[in-house]
Amino acid sequence: MSEMSNSTMEARPGKRDRLIASARTLIHEQGVHRTTLADVAARADVPLGNVYYYFKTKDELVGAVLESYTREAAALLEKFEHHRSPKARLKALVGNWNSMRDAIAEHGCPMGTLCSELDKSDGEAADDAAAVLAIIIDWAEDQFRQLGRRDARDLALSLFAGVQGAALLANTFRDPTILARQGRQLERWIDSIGSPRREGR
Amino acid sequence: MSEMSNSTMEARPGKRDRLIASARTLIHEQGVHRTTLADVAARADVPLGNVYYYFKTKDELVGAVLESYTREAAALLEKFEHHRSPKARLKALVGNWNSMRDAIAEHGCPMGTLCSELDKSDGEAADDAAAVLAIIIDWAEDQFRQLGRRDARDLALSLFAGVQGAALLANTFRDPTILARQGRQLERWIDSIGSPRREGR
DNA sequence: GTCTATAAGATGATAGAC
DNA sequence: GTCTATCATCTTATAGAC
Prior knowledge:
homodimer, Tetracycline Repressor, domain 2, DNA-binding
């Protein structure tokens, strides 16, 4: 690469980054399948044939998109550390999806729908998709553990399932308020979590 | 149609029904996109060209699959009416997904993944997909209302979001126990639901 | 009603000039 | 490094014999 991986001086981002950003948007809106490389190239203002200089295959481009989600998720979680209590951090996590509720109602959770679609593909991309969700769930588990819960893993999975399920329903019914109301429910649930308690029943 | 829509006497189901059943299975396993009409025809033991006698387009076949899910959901809910209490009925609903946990871990919830995929398509099939989920949510809302809850709609959406989210995670991580454990959590939650309570907080 | 052969269109990928 | 032109493949859908 003769070009830094990101913008220099005044210019817009390099072609590689433009392609990834373009693919991210289009894949969120249309899914992997309906998004053609011609679409991605046009939106990034890069000639079609040139895409293959940066990504050997379409799968590799999808992989780069997944990597960008992983990086973004990690950055987001780090940002949440600024909150003082584990409960506040968990509520910030829920609030993040709530703040995207309109986009989610239109096209679903970018990561959730991608995981769902890639699991039906044949490539090994599904593993990378799982890794994105795992980062978030592991982090949530850690927060619940800080609250003294032995069943932290289950609680983390429940919380994230609640978010992802609400995203699916909000998208299916094209109704962002589903996400907002579920967000309130989850926040109340987080608030209600008490001191250590035996798991199992 | 010179043939009844289903089996007569000894023979296996008619071609139309075989095509729908074949499409159902393949779409669950591979998604709509990867499932070609050639696949569907081969599995149903029907020549490719003949598919178009029964379904004018692929979309129409997908529509028939959606319709079969709608019918199945309605039959399932009716079966649940045999349980005496609303709580038992709701737990039966959760138990239904739990009983399919291995298949769900492999390929996701048949209806949930289909809704997700169709929402990224352009056709109007997405509306039919939403109708399938709506039947179940409306039913659950009714159960919560029978429990005297004013916020029955929110509770129904929360419950179903919990199920669908867990299905997504079970599929993404290929781990059926996620669904089993979330099922237990949801059952406990149902049990804990008390008498009427002001919604909102 | 049933089936074979094939048309028509879309898209991932490559060759090779610049 | 960049881009145009094009190939190769796959898949929906149709034409038309039986």
